[in-house]
Amino acid sequence: QVQLVESGGGLVQAGGSLRLSCAASRRTVSIDGMGWFRQAPGKEREFVAAITRSDGTTYYDDSVNGRFTISRDNAKNTVYLQMNSLKPEDTAVYYCAVDKDYCPGYECRSREYMYDYWGQGTQVTVSS
C-alpha cells in the first residue's frame, strides 16, 4: 500500500505562485507514473500534469502548459508542482496520484484510471 501526503496548497492572488508537494510513504511498491489532477467545484476531476519516474518525461494539460512545472525527487519519493502565473480558474482541490506501471505517452499518463494510489487533496484558491 502507498500513502500519499500532499502539502503546499493555500490562498494566493492572481498572478502569484504556489508549490505543491506530494510525498509517498516509505513502504512503497515500485512506482513509475506520478501525476497531478484537480477538481473545481461542480466539475469533474481533470488532468493537470504528470511525470514518469523512470526517465523524467513530463506531460501537461494545455491549460497549464508554460505556467506549471512538475518535477520529482526519486530518492525522496516526492513529486512537486510549481504553479506560476496563477489564475482564478486554477482554483480547485489538487490531488496527486501514482501509478505502479510504466505507461509512457500523454494518453496513458493523463487518464485517472491508470493511477493506483491517490492523495487526500489540497485546496488551492486563487483570488482575482
Summarize the structure.
By secondary structure, the protein is mainly beta.
Supply the key terms.
mainly beta; 7-stranded mixed sheet; 4-stranded antiparallel sheet; 3% helix
Structure in words:
Helices cover 3% and strands 47% of the residues. It is mainly beta. Strands 2, 4, 5, 6, 9, 10 and 11 form a 7-stranded mixed β-sheet that branches. Strands 1-3-8-7 form a 4-stranded antiparallel β-sheet, with no helix packed on it. A hairpin with a 6-residue loop joins strand 4 and strand 5. The model has no long low-confidence stretch (mean pLDDT 93).
Provide the fold topology:
Elements: E1 4-7, E2 10-13, E3 18-24, E4 33-39, E5 46-52, E6 58-60, E7 68-73, E8 78-83, E9 92-99, H1 106-109, E10 117-118, E11 122-127
